[in-house]
Every structure is written in C-alpha cells, then in structure tokens.
UniProtKB/TrEMBL annotation:
The chain crosses the membrane at residues 42-59, 71-89, 101-118, 130-149, 155-176, 213-235, 241-263, 275-297, 303-327, 339-360, 366-383. It is found in: Membrane. Residues 1-390 form the Major facilitator superfamily (MFS) profile domain. PROSITE patterns: MFS. This is Multidrug effflux MFS transporter. Pfam families: MFS_1. Residues 393-412, 445-495 are annotated as: Disordered. It comes from Thiohalorhabdus methylotrophus. It comes from the Bacteria. InterPro entries: MFS, MFS_dom, MFS_trans_sf. Its main location: membrane. Keywords: Membrane, Transmembrane, Transmembrane helix, Transport.
Amino acid sequence: MQHWRLGLLLGGSIAVSPLALDASLPAFPAMAHSLGVSVQDVGLIVSIFLLGLALGHLIGGPLSDRYGRPAVMYSGLGLFVSGSLAISATDSYAWLLGWRILQSVGAGFCLVSAPAIARDHASGEEGARLFSLIALVTFLVPAIAPLLGTGLLKLAGWPGIFTLMAAYAVAVKLVLRRTLFRSYPVQPDRSKPLHTLVTDYRWVLGHGTAMRLLIILALVFSVNMLFLTHASFVFQEKFRLSPATFSLLMGATVGAMAGFNLLNNRLLRHFGPAAILRAAVGLQALATLYLLAVTQAGATLELFLPGLLLAMGTFGAGMPNIFTLVLDFFRDIAATATALLGALKFSVAGIISGFSSLLVAGDLDAMVLVMAACSGMALLLAWNAPHAVARRHAETETRGNGAETMPGSGGLSGSAPCFRIAARPAAELRHADGWSILRAERGPVPQAARFNTDGGVPPSASGKNSEAPAPDRETGMSSAEEVPAGPPLPAPSGA
C-alpha cells in the first residue's frame, strides 16, 4: 500500500482520540449545567480519558503483537462505540466518568495498534516521514472537532457530540475492513509463550535510552494536556470568549502543530530526528517561559496567544521523531514498545492534569508555571538525546556483529525475537535517530561504521578509505574518534 494512503488510514484511526477530547470541549459549560456539577468537575473527563488511554495501551500493545493488529483495532473501535453511546444516554456524573473510561480504553487499543502497523510497513527515516504524515492527518481532527462540537451543541445538545463520536468509529471500522485489513501482510507470532506479554515490557523498561525518550514525550505532552484541561476556563471565562471564537482559537493551536509537523518533514532531509527533537523541546521551553512572564505582567489575549501557539505547536515536530526513534530499538515488539510510549505519555499527563484541576483551581499563573516546569525538565533530558541515541546504536553495532540482542536470542533466556542489523540486505542502513551505518557490499571495510548525531551525510560506502572521516557537526569530532571500529560485517546474502 502506498504510504500516503496508509498515512490517511492510520491517521483517521488514531483520530478517534482527539475527536473524543476536542469535540466535547465547547460543551463543558452545558454538560456542567445538565449534570449539576462545576465546569472544573467536567474538566476531569480529560484526565480520566488520558488514564484510560494509558490502560488501553498497556493491555492492547502485547495483545496486538500476539493476536494481530486487526483484532485489537476492531476491538478498540467496538469499545469506543459502546462507551460513546452510553455517555450520550447518561444523566449521571458518576456514570459519565465510568463510561468515559470504557471509551478511552477502546481509543487506547486504536492508538497502540496504528504506530505498530506503521512500523510493520516502514522504518528509519522512511518511517519518520510516515509518522509525520500520520500526525499531520491526526492534527486535522482537533482543528475541526471544536467547531463540530459547537455546531452539534446547538443542534442536538451535548449528547449529540458523543453520538457523532460513535458514528465516526463505525465508519473507520468499515473503511479498514475494506482496505488495510482485507489481507494484512504481517501475521502475529502466536508461538511465543504467554508470559512474554509481560516480559517484553521488562525488556523495554530496561532500555535506558528508550526510557529517556519516553519521559521526554510524557513531559512535552503534559504541557499540551495541561492547557487542554483548562482551555475552556482560559478562553471562555478568563478572556470571555464565545464558544464559536473559542473553537476557532483551539483550531489555531492545532494548526500550529500541523505547521511544525510539515516543517519537521522538511528538516528530516537535512537533520536527524534526535537533533530536531532537541530543538523542538527547546522552543517549547522558551515559549512557556514567555507565557510565564506574560501572565506575571497581566496577561492579555494578544500577548498570551503567540506564546501559546508556539508552546503547543512544537509538539507537532517532536512527537513523530520520538516514535520512530523508540520503535527502531524494538522492531519485533513494536506494539509493546508503542504501548509503553502511550501508557507513560497518557498516565503522566493524566496525573499532572488531574492534580492541576485540584491545585490550579482557575489560577492562570499556576497553570503556566506547571507547564514551564514540565517543559524545563523535558529540555534537560532532550539536550543530550542525540548523543545518547547515537551512542546506544554504536554500542549495538560494535557488539556481536551489530545485533540488538533481545531476551530469547543469542542464548539468553526468554522468547522475544532477535533484531539483527547485520542481517538486513541493504548496502546502507539509515536509522531515524540521525545516525547511519554504512556497509560495503563485500568484505570488511575500514571505517565501516559512521555515527552522526545530527543526521549529516556520511562518507561514501564504497569500501575505499580515500577520504578522511567528516567531523560531526555536534561535537567537532570525527566518527572514527567517537566510535571504535567493530568486528567486520558480513557481506549481504547473495553477494
């Protein structure tokens, strides 16, 4: 399947989550009035949804690796439809929260399956571009969802919004059945023992570089979710905007994310994803510091909005790169790795946004302070991320003929399959973290491994040592100085 079609399908599948989050935002005051609670209480459904997404990831990820992507995707869409219809019929705040959990677990099944499906079809820089396309499609839904919510609120009341969510999920399931899942090329490995549903998580959790990237993702996502939790208060109560204007401004924040996503696609031609990630996190940190200064001086919408658009928009450049960086470490258990990506992202964001609902309590200064703290911690972790990723791949390539040995391979206990770089037939393996491995077509090659933390163009793979290694643009050191040559790599099969 062509990547643009695959990106549209997977982006549309993931879109059940932003639709569930953003379409309901304009209805918070109406829901509060109908259920007899405060707007802040209704805002708790954002935090509940995030925690349910985390649970759905943890359950759905290993199931997707074992039983297949279609089964888990269909199950998730079914749970989402059931939860959405139940919410539309409830008149109890307690039941609203309960059905919201069911809805969000179903959405989590969809979110954990889609990146794994993308990883089944592409990897490295090609995978990074596919993830960017998926993210771009996904960003379109939050741009229009508040407008849809506002229109449906006038026509059918707030229950009509959740009925729309159910109808959308049914449509996605029908389209997937007729296209992507008509004959899915990757079959699940059901020979793996059941205990690997848990032990695979241990493998991912023990990977220090992957966990660094997971925590960065959780923190930068928390910045976005903090604002989303309090968006109705900020725009409709603090700045006294109408629901229609509020919807337009929420669409503008999503437009900023889409713009940074398109910029990320262009930058990937020149820089590695880890370097782009660091720049995006740095811009988000600067934006939150600006917002902090503006709110301390007395925020006006004209001053507040530019900083908000920058803080929210940079997530569009960071998220696709984190996904491809992490999944390149775990090619054979992509759904399990995606599960931890999503679970950590949504659980941390859900906990932070949930506590902020209790602690911030309508205080704009406090909200921005928590946002700045999250982005500052993310920047500390992201600053050395390009070197950390390159170093991990260097260690992998110089150990055991370039094998990323997982439990269950190479004589170790367990049953997860082994990912061996050296087994790939291509003359050049470019990975999405901004490093590359060059391999001649025959025999050992001097200076065969090249690791570049910013994605610079490596020297020729001709096997002739005619040029001095190009210095790394990040450190000023040559590749040969940074990484000792590993054992000779075997020639590709059939050479």
